[in-house]
């Protein structure tokens, strides 16, 4: 048997989930599985008391055309027994995702019209999808009181015909029913499951700003009442014998309690309820802060959940979307193996400890690099940046990342690593050795990073693969990290901006001018910049952080984040379980390659475009500027070597040198530092009729840019059951978990001068009352005086 709900006497409307009816069902009954269409019509006439002699009926079934948990209802006209039997079979098999047959009945006087065309009143799936998309901004709830009003269907009958119909519908006895919409509670309403019933009742009262108390919540009966003892409202619901649906049996009384909105938390808004609301938000963004969740919920219901409730809702949503943390470690090795099978050439390296079981190892870290990224890096500039971020999940740890730069300076995600412990010498050494051996190879490279000791030590170790003494590696500081690491004792906003300006100057004259300004501003800051990064036998190490002293190894890239933040490519990655983290790097890397491949496809290689669009635009702008320069003097040092003095429009002179080996230089240093000819060099090329294309570094070539992003990512099967068999060892997540209890806040404490800190003394304390250093608030004389006064009174 299966339930049938019959709706009549109202009109069809389009709601957030598609077709709906503006009246509650006029009748419901359990039908036999083998019921025919003729038997159904006789039963409809019997239950609705429509005069069969004077009227015919049009039967339209409310069909769920959605997929999964999303519902999109359309009207399916039922005209013959074959269509009816198909509907019954689909319902019994639950293939429609809806276990109740809902029939919308239209009574038509025989003198007015006959059965409608089957397609006259039906709504296509596309129309329902469009209606649902119009309400997608509020799609997380079962309903929304602020949703857009939909245009109702035009009536098929005139006013006179409808009056005649209403007189004949029930044999001189009309049905007096209150109009309801899809967002209302009413007796007789059916729900597919107990969870749907609970969610709907809870959301309805949250929207109404009324509070509920659950009296009975079991598999058979569900009873709730208003929390206000003076309000007598109560709802009774129960399931059928097979528990295939739940129905509201009775609603007692009306709400007389206050429902003034105060914008605060709602007692019935649990973190489980919020987690269902934010699933799409987490799925799209990868992560959302508790504050963002609070704002998101407030826009829906005009109430703000607590910070802790929003935090737990986010954790639950992440678990629902990406799985449990322990299970994620179990799936990590098989998933990486599936990626390697789908993308041959993908590199994976494990860092682990042995256990008693030879088939299980204790996880300490894993590094991976996708094959398309390894191939694409071969056509990038010889520069990489490395960085790390903290993992905020259940087991903590750090994530390491290495990125490269294409011809136009766009980031190419190259390699990743997730480690259990905090970053230290061992973890960075393990990752960088693997990066050199398996990913980048022996190619000379410039590495841009921050000033961590664990990273700096790599470039001083001869066996690390990154020893700067061999000429195969060149280490440079990120200008952003340099400015952030200025000691707080003399750090100001103006000084930070001045340091960033000085570090990015390509002309030695401007660099020296900026250093003089820093010395005039703060002598200590000047001395710190001179000594930063120096070895014991060095007076200065300007080449580590200034562009003009770089020597051209960093190709003009000053900050390791380049044109965009590294971790902005992977939003919310710090919050994910380990397997979901790896999956996100694969998905976002594939999206980056697809996006850049589409952008670079516009390069017109067929029209002899030699360089990428960015360099082509730079050359055109500099050629226009070179037309305003003037050649002052030419000195021939040899048969094919010349030294030229070029004067700009502002009467500034630069010296250009051109040799027979196509090497060129200028006193402005742009050609040496970036590999792109400056306007002074282009002015000389125009004077001598030299093809300036030979002076551009080949790293900016258009064909190399196309080859960088030409590789395709092939995703592994989505289901673990479809992954290739994995015969390797398993990795245990026996990591140190975060301590239980209240989340700790990072409280900033003022720094205490070293001369005031004495071992064993209270010099490190600052009084909260008198703001004096040397004692705490508890020991303050003011606090003691207040205590004595209170005791006397």
From TrEMBL:
Keyword Nucleotidyltransferase attached: no
All residue ranges annotated as the SWIM-type domain in the record: 654-689
Segments of this protein annotated with the region Disordered: 129-171
Keywords assigned by UniProt, alphabetized: Metal-binding, Zinc, Zinc-finger
Domain of life of the organism encoding this protein: Eukaryota
Pfam families: MULE, SWIM
Single annotated GO MF: zinc ion binding
UniProt-listed PROSITE patterns: ZF_SWIM
The keyword NAD appears for this protein: no
Chain intervals with Polar residues compositional bias: 134-143
Database matches in PANTHER family: MUDR FAMILY TRANSPOSASE, POLYPROTEIN, PUTATIVE-RELATED
Protein name per its UniProtKB record: MuDR family transposase
Origin species: Rhynchospora pubera
């Amino acid at each position: 048997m299966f339930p049938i709900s019959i709706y009549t006497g109202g009109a069809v409307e389009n709601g957030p989930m598609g077709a709906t009816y503006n009246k509650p069902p006029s009748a419901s009954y359990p039908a036999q599985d083998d019921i025919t269409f003729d038997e159904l019509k006789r039963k409809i006439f019997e239950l609705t008391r429509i005069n069969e002699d004077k009227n015919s009926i049009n039967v339209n079934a409310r069909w769920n055309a959605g997929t999964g948990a999303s519902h999109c209802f359309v009207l399916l006209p039922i005209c013959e027994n074959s269509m009816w039997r198909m509907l019954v079979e689909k319902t019994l098999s639950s293939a429609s995702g809806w276990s109740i047959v809902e029939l919308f009945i239209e009574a038509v006087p025989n003198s007015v019209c006959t059965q409608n065309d089957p397609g006259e009143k039906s709504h296509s799936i596309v129309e329902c999808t469009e209606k649902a998309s119009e309400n997608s901004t509020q799609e997380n709830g079962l309903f929304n009181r602020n949703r857009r009003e939909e245009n109702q269907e035009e009536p098929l009958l005139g006013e006179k015909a409808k009056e005649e119909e209403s007189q004949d519908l029930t044999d001189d006895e009309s049905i007096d029913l209150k109009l309801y919409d899809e967002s209302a509670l009413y007796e007789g309403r059916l729900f597919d499951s107990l969870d749907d019933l609970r969610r709907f009742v809870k959301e309805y009262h949250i929207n109404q700003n009324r509070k509920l108390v659950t009296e009975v919540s079991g598999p058979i009966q569900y009873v709730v009442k208003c929390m206000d003892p003076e309000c007598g409202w109560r709802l009774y619901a129960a399931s059928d014998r097979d528990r295939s649906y739940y129905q509201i049996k009775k609603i007692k009384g009306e709400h007389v309690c206050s429902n003034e909105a105060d914008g605060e938390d709602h007692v019935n808004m649990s973190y489980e309820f919020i987690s269902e609301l934010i699933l799409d938000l987490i799925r799209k963004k990868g992560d959302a802060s508790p504050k963002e969740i609070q704002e998101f919920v407030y826009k829906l219901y005009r109430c703000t959940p607590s910070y802790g409730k929003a935090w737990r809702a986010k954790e639950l949503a992440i678990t629902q979307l990406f799985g449990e943390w322990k299970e994620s470690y179990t799936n990590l090795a098989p998933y990486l193996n599936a990626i390697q099978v789908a993308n041959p050439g993908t590199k994976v390296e494990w860092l682990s400890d042995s256990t008693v079981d030879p088939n299980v190892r204790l996880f300490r870290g894993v590094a991976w690099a996708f094959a398309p990224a390894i191939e694409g890096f071969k056509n990038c500039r010889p520069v990489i940046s490395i960085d790390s971020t903290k993992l905020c999940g259940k087991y903590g740890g750090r994530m390491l990342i290495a990125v490269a730069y294409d011809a136009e300076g766009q980031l190419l995600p190259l390699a990743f690593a997730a480690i259990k412990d905090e970053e230290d010498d061992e973890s960075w050494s393990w990752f960088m050795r693997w990066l050199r051996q398996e990913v980048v190879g022996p190619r000379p490279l410039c590495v841009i990073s921050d000033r961590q000791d664990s990273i700096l030590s790599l470039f001083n170790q001869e066996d690390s693969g990154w020893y700067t003494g061999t000429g195969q590696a060149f280490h440079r500081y990120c200008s952003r990290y340099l400015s952030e690491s200025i000691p707080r004792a003399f750090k100001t906003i103006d000084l930070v901006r001045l340091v960033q300006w000085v570090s990015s100057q390509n002309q030695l004259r401007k660099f020296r001018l900026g250093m003089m300004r820093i010395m005039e501003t703060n002598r200590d800051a000047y001395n710190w910049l001179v000594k930063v990064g120096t070895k014991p036998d060095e007076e200065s190490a300007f080449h580590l952080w200034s562009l003009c002293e770089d020597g051209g190894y960093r190709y003009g890239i000053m900050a390791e984040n380049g044109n965009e933040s590294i971790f902005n490519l992977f939003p919310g990655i710090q919050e994910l379980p380990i397997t979901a983290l790896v999956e996100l790097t694969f998905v976002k890397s594939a999206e980056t390659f697809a996006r850049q491949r589409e952008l670079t496809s516009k390069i017109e290689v067929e029209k002899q475009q030699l360089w990428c669009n960015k360099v082509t635009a730079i050359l055109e702008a500099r050629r226009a500027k070179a037309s305003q320069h003037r050649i002052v003097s030419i000195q021939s040092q040899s048969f094919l070597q010349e030294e030229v003095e070029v004067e700009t429009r502002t009467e500034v002179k630069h010296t250009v040198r051109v040799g027979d080996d196509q090497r060129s230089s200028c006193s402005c240093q742009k050609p040496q530092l970036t590999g792109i000819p400056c306007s002074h060099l282009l002015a000389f090329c125009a004077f001598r009729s030299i093809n300036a294309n030979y002076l551009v570094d080949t790293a900016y070539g258009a064909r190399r840019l196309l080859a960088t992003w030409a590789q395709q990512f092939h995703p592994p099967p989505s289901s673990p059951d479809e992954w290739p068999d994995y015969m390797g060892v398993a990795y245990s997540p026996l990591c140190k978990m975060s301590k239980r209890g209240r989340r700790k806040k990072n409280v900033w404490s003022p720094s205490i001068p070293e001369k005031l800190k004495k071992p064993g003394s209270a010099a490190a304390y600052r009084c909260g009352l008198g703001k004096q250093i040397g004692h705490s608030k508890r020991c303050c004389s003011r606090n003691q005086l207040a205590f004595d006064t209170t005791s006397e009174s």
